Amino acid sequence: MLNTGTIIGFIAAFCTTASFLPQAIQTIRTKDTKGISLSMYSLFTFGTVLWLTFGIMSSNYPVAIANGITLLLALVILTYKIRYK
Amino acid sequence: MLNTGTIIGFIAAFCTTASFLPQAIQTIRTKDTKGISLSMYSLFTFGTVLWLTFGIMSSNYPVAIANGITLLLALVILTYKIRYK
To answer: Tens digit of pLDDT for each residue in B50-73?
Structure first.
């Protein structure tokens, strides 16, 4: 059963995951990564790997799927940051 | 009781929350926000407000606290992005 809290959680997960899409698109298009923090994306990418692990270990598939997608987007941004300093 | 999954979840939350600190510091210092996506920080900030709401509604205080901190950091970055386009 979906209560209000669960629905808010789903929308929250959608927003925080989807938010990395416009950043990835902008970074791919402009290759402007000067304002982006390497420390942020290194730590964030590592964190999403752990969230993905946590989601799989606890059979929490919404967490696993959301973080799997976020991980892919964060990896794109991190790769561009390293390549186009 | 803390099992391995819970510990991984805590470290994951710490990393993804803490990762926004170096970005906020870099943005405050350099005021260089050209490479940062306004759409990303708008959607991300909205998402963390929902995560905070979800954490409070479900009495999940680690989620509420982690997202409260992330929200503050994201708001700093968003404010700089809007002010120094």
So the answer is: 999 999 999 998 899 999 999 999
The model's pTM is 0.94
Maximum pairwise Cα distance, chain B: 48
Gyration radius (Cα) of chain B, Å: 14
d(CA B49, CA B71): 7
CB-based contact B43:A26 (threshold 8 Å): no
Q: Does A4 touch chain B (CB under 8 A)?
A: yes
Complex prediction ipTM? 0.93
CA B56/CA A78 separation, integer angstroms: 32
Residues of B in contact with A11 (CB under 8 A): 47, 50
Q: Which CATH number fits domain B4-83: 1.20.1280.290, 3.40.50.300, 1.10.8.870, 2.130.10.10?
A: 1.20.1280.290
A75 in Cβ contact with A22 (< 8 Å): no
